[in-house]
Design goal:
Layout: H1 6-20, H2 25-29, H3 31-53, H4 61-79, H5 86-105, H6 108-131, H7 133-136, E1 141-144, E2 149-152, E3 157-160, E4 166-170, H8 175-190, H9 197-213, H10 216-236, H11 241-264, H12 266-273, H13 278-286, H14 290-308, H15 318-329, H16 339-346, H17 348-366, H18 371-387, H19 395-404, H20 409-428
Antiparallel strand pairs: 1-2, 2-3, 3-4
Helix pairs in contact: 1-6, 3-5, 4-5, 4-17, 5-19, 6-9, 8-9, 8-10, 8-18, 10-11, 10-18, 11-12, 11-18, 14-15, 14-16, 16-17, 17-18, 17-19
Length: 429
């Protein structure tokens, strides 16, 4: 008799839903419909938490952030006279409530297991679709964007960019979004205490999938992942404390320099990338660092606006104020990509700083306050959410709140128990 684990299946459905609500191709083309769906789901979550589950809501930084942000949103509506846009504000508030409540409700272990498996299959199909694109493109559903043409295959998509060039998107609207979830999957495996052969196979598959995205950020973060893998291994083996600490600090310094130097001087990165096949690195060698400049100045503009309007700005004047900053500096940007600086102008200066603090503290809690590992995780998470617009997305915001709430504690404890059992079993041999 075949038994069905309904709880595990429900987690696959929930995680897939969260990914759809977090920068997916669906959200890019049907944002209004997904906002309505999220509103219904969030109201159901509120009802469940308040009247059914009895889950206690902690009085901490997360709760304070939510309260401050809600009051900031109300102030923005009144101060900027935007009562006509009140439904948009309600939708934004429901997103904040949603990712916090999901963090309280979900089991971390089941959620991460479902996420890794979903991303694994998405990566495998994306690699196949990328390699055999010419043979499979007739099976895809064509979706036209404002600048690109997407070929949607259900669980993944391929995007045409220019004359015959393609990039893998996964479930998401942009290759940069896809690489962020792939890198995050690799990070979860990199910090795992007892990696087995299957974990290494998954790491390789995720790395290959990142190559199909042709994402500069993804390539840079692969270097950081490798350094994190080495550092994690050093923590597990017998090594001189002095030399071990020095080596870990050296690897961390190399990781930071790789990211900083490559962004400041793209010629160094281009020289390195020229060693690889052109069909993998062509996009990176042709961009002239436009995306990097856009991201840097986008963050700078948001910080300037936040300092001028510490209580937040109106939804309807957001683009106007951004245009003013571009006129002052003489540098145009493609759009906002930094989640942290977006929070500064949406949640106000105080709420935005609290949002950033939740991320940083969550990363260090996830690293169990191991300073070096915490820096690695902060670098990875900060790069992911500040190079693509994740502010209004549920998944990564929910993850860091889970870390902040120590929802991963039992999961890590089980890893320790599994490792002890494995060691004892081997010693008996």
């Amino acid at each position: 008799m075949i038994t069905v684990d309904r709880k595990s299946i429900s987690y696959y459905v929930i995680v897939y839903y969260l990914l759809i609500m977090s920068g997916s191709l669906f959200g890019h083309f049907a944002s209004d419909s997904l906002a309505k769906i999220n509103a219904v789901v969030t109201v159901a979550l509120i009802f469940y938490v308040v009247f059914v589950s009895g889950i206690p809501i902690r009085r901490d930084l997360v709760s304070a952030f939510l309260v401050i942000s809600v009051f900031t949103y109300i102030f923005r509506i009144l101060w900027w006279n935007e009562l006509g846009s009140i439904m948009g504000y309600v939708g934004d508030i429901l997103i904040l409530i949603s990712f916090i409540l999901w963090a309280y409700v979900l089991d971390y272990k089941l959620m991460i297991k479902a996420f890794i498996n979903i991303m694994l299959w998405m990566a495998i199909f994306s690699i196949i679709g990328y390699v055999f694109y010419d043979n499979l493109v007739s099976l895809a559903v064509p979706v036209l964007g404002s600048s690109w043409k997407y070929h949607f295959f259900g669980i993944f998509s391929i995007r045409e960019v220019g004359s015959g060039s393609i990039r893998s998107n996964g479930l998401f609207w942009e290759p940069g979004m896809f690489q962020g979830y792939l890198i995050f999957s690799m990070m979860l495996l990199a910090v795992k205490r007892n990696r087995n052969r299957m974990d290494w196979i998954k790491l390789i598959i995720f790395a290959l999938a990142i190559l199909t995205t042709q994402s500069t950020t993804g390539y840079l973060l692969l270097i950081v992942i490798i350094m994190l893998l080495v550092t994690t291994k050093l923590n597990q083996i017998e090594i001189s404390s002095k030399w071990g600490n020095q080596l870990q600090w050296f690897l961390l310094l190399v990781s930071v320099l790789c990211v900083v130097v490559a962004f400041i001087n793209p010629n160094i990165m281009n020289s390195f990338l020229s060693l690889f096949p052109e069909n993998v690195t062509g996009k990176l060698l042709e961009t002239d660092n436009i995306s990097t400049n856009s991201r840097f100045y986008g963050m700078l503009y948001d910080i300037r606006i936040a300092l001028n309007y510490p209580l937040g700005i109106g939804r309807n004047v957001s683009q106007q104020l951004l245009s003013e900053q571009m006129s002052i500096s003489g540098v145009e940007i493609l759009g906002r990509t930094s989640s942290w600086t977006t929070a500064l102008i949406m949640d106000g200066l105080i709420g935005g700083v609290m949002y950033i603090c939740i991320y940083i503290r969550g990363c260090f809690k996830f690293s169990e306050d191991n300073f070096i590992n915490g820096i690695y995780i902060c670098i990875i998470m900060a790069t992911i959410v500040n190079t693509e617009p994740h502010y209004g997305c549920l998944f990564f915001n929910m993850i860091v709140v889970m870390w902040y709430l120590n929802k991963d504690k039992d999961f890590k404890l089980q890893q320790d128990i599994d490792q002890m059992v494995e060691v004892n079993f081997n010693s008996e041999d």
